Amino acid sequence: DSIIASKATDIAKLERTGAHSHIRGLGLDDKLESRPNSQGMVGQLKARKAAGVIVRVIKQGKISGRAIMMAGAPGTGKTAIAMAMSQELGDVPFTSIAASEVFSLEVSKTESLTQAFRRSIGVRIKEESEVIEGEVVEIQIDRSVTGVGPKTGKLTLKTTDMETIYDLGQKMISSLTKEKVMAGDVIQIDKATGRITRLGRSFTRARDFDATGPDVKFVQCPDGELQTRKEVVHLVSLHEIDVINSRQQGFLALFSGDTGEIKSEVRDQINQKISEWCEEGKAEIVPGVLFIDEIHMLDMECFSFLNRALEDTMAPVVIMASNRGMSRIRGTNYQSPHGVPIDFLDRLLIISTQAYSEDDIRQILKIRCDEEEVDMADDALAVLTKVATETSLRYAIHLISTGHLVALKRQATKVDVVDIKRVYSLFLDEGRSVQFLKDYQDEYMYNEIAPGAGEKMVVDAA
C-alpha cells in the first residue's frame, strides 16, 4: 500500500506522447537554410525552407489573408511542418481544425469557418495601470478585544530607495490574509482594483528559515519609488471578444464551448471599436495562422466563402493540407487537382512535400524511439526501417511502443529483432489487411466485391 501511495504522489501531471510531440521547430539556420536533422524535423528540405520564409513574413506582420497549401502523399510530413510553424511563431494565435469539423458542428458551415478565422486573429491590448511594488517590512493588524468590531492595520513597504507606512482597510486586510502575505515577501498592489500579487520572497530574507519548499521563489527587493506605472499587455482572439460581447451567451460560453451563431452586427461593431483602438495606440492586431487539414473535405459553398473571407482586412494566414491527387470536388461531379476548385487553387501558394528517403525514415524512427523512451537495438531499427519503406512510416512508428511492451514481457531492456517480428505478425499493415480480406471475403457479411474486379480503389468516382 505504501509503495502504491508513493507512486501516486510522484505523478504530478499526465504526460502524453503525441504523434508530433517531438517537433520543436522547423530546423532552419539564420539564413533560412534547412538543416538535415534539427529540432525534430528530418528531410523535406525545400518544403521546410518555404515554410520558414512564410513564418518570417508572418512574424514581421506583413501578410494576412494569404493562403498556403501543403500538397503531398500521405505520411510525408504535412501536418508536422504545420506544427513546426506554430512552434516557430510563438506568441501568435494558431488554430488547427479538420475540414470535416465544419459539417459536424451545430452551426452553419459559414459560421463555423468564420469562428475559426476569428480565433486565429489576435488583438494585443495595452493597458497602463498604477501599481505599488515593494518588500513587506511589517504587517500590523489590530483586532478589537471583543472580536466584533472592524479590523484596522498598518503595512510597511520598502524599496532599496524608500520606505512607507500605509493604513489598511477591511478589504486590504482580508486580501493580505487570503494571499498569506508575511514580512519578507515582495508584493505588488494594483491601485485601481486593490488586487495583491505575491512576486516571491526577498533574497535578504533567504536565511530566515532553515528549510524552504521547492515552490518558494526568491526575488530582488525592487528599486526606485514604491508607486510606479506599469504597462500590461493582454493577447485575446477576436472570437473571444465576440463571445463576451454576444449577450445571448456571455463569457461563460468560452468554457462550455457552446457559442452558437453570433450576429454579424456584433462583429461589425467589434471590428469598428478595435480599429479605433489601433488608431489611438491602445491595441494592435496580430494576424495569426489557421491550419485546415484535409481541405478536400470542404464543398463548393465553403470554398466560395473562403474566397471572400481571405480578401477581408482582418484575415489570418490560412495553411491547408491535402493528400489527394485528381479527385472530385465535394458536392459536384467535377474533378479538380487536390479536390479544390481551380479558381481557389489559383489563390494559393503551394508547397509540395516529397516521399522520405530510407535514411530520413531511419532518422525519424530514431527520434521517435527517443521521444517514447524506447531503447532499440541497431538491428531492430534496421528491420523497422525496412518495414517502413515497404509499408508506411505511420505503421512503423506504431510498432515502436508495441515492440517495447513485447520486450518488457520477456524481461528485456532493449527492443530486438524478435520483438519487431512478433508485433509485425500480430498487427497487420494496410497491404496485408487488404490481402486477408480478399482471401476470406466470402466469410464476411454484406460482401459486394465481384470476383475479378479491379484491385485499385476508386476515390470519389462520379
Automatic annotation (TrEMBL):
Q: Which GO terms describe its cellular component?
A: Ino80 complex; Swr1 complex
Q: Which gene encodes it?
A: RVB2
The segment(s) forming the AAA+ ATPase domain are 64-368
Species of origin: Coemansia thaxteri
Record GO biological process: chromatin organization; DNA repair
For this UniProt record, give its keywords in alphabetical order, as a comma-separated list: Activator, ATP-binding, Chromatin regulator, DNA damage, DNA repair, Helicase, Hydrolase, Nucleotide-binding, Nucleus, Transcription, Transcription regulation
Q: Which PANTHER family match?
A: RUVB-RELATED REPTIN AND PONTIN
- Catalytic activity, EC: 3.6.4.12
GO MF term set: ATP binding; DNA helicase activity; hydrolase activity
SUPFAM superfamilies attached to this UniProt entry: P-loop containing nucleoside triphosphate hydrolases
The entry assigns this protein to a family as follows: Belongs to the RuvB family.
* Protein name as annotated: RuvB-like helicase
- Mind telling me which Gene3D superfamilies this protein's record contains? 1.10.8.60, P-loop containing nucleotide triphosphate hydrolases (3.40.50.300), RuvB-like helicase, domain II (2.40.50.360)
Principal cellular location given in the protein's record: nucleus
Catalytic reaction(s) noted: ATP + H2O = ADP + phosphate + H(+)
Describe its function.
Answer: DNA helicase participates in several chromatin remodeling complexes, including the SWR1 and the INO80 complexes.
Q: Where does the UniProt annotation locate this protein?
A: Nucleus
Q: What Pfam families does its record include? A: TIP49 (PF06068), TIP49_C (PF17856)
